Amino acid sequence: QVQLVESGGGLVQPGGSLRLSCAASGFTFSSYHMGWYRQAPGKERELVASISEGTTTYYADSAKGRFTISRDNAKKTVYLQMNSLKPDDTAVYYCNKRYSPYNSWGQGTQVTVSS
């Protein structure tokens, strides 16, 4: 059974930082290209960053220069370091496969950027 458990979100002031974690189980984590997605209120879920099995990374324009994705295959965990946070980054953040995401998404972790 696939499980994706996100954590690390919270309330942070503009310019602050957060590190999100996603613990995966139920599939061969190291064999998959993983992604971090987010969904803001009233908006569709969007891909923020992804990392291949070989650690090649991709970032949406909104994340470039501020976010860093990484993975630890031994821990079956993918991380998202978010710096210089902006109010527009406020959303629920999820992890999943980059391609053909699992239908069963995790609960996500709320990130709120506000003064």
Explained architecture:
- By secondary structure, the protein is an all-beta fold.
- It is built from no helices and ten strands.
- The strands form two sheets. A six-stranded mixed β-sheet has the order 2-10-9-4-5-6, with no helix packed on it.
- It is globular.
- The N and C termini lie far apart (40 Å).
Query: Low-confidence parts, pLDDT < 50 over ≥5 residues?
Result: none
The major sheet is characterized as:
6 strands, mixed
Order of helices and strands: EEEEEEEEEE
Number of strands: 10
Share of helical residues: under 10%
Radius of gyration: 13 Å
Q: For the terminal residues, how far apart are their CA atoms?
A: 40 Å
Q: Roughly what is the average pLDDT, rounded to an integer? A: 96
Based on helices, strands and strand pairing, what is the structural class? mainly beta
Overall spatial form: globular
Count of DSSP-assigned helices: 0
Into which percentage range does the β-strand content fall? over 45%
Question: Strands across the major sheet, in which order?
Answer: 2-10-9-4-5-6
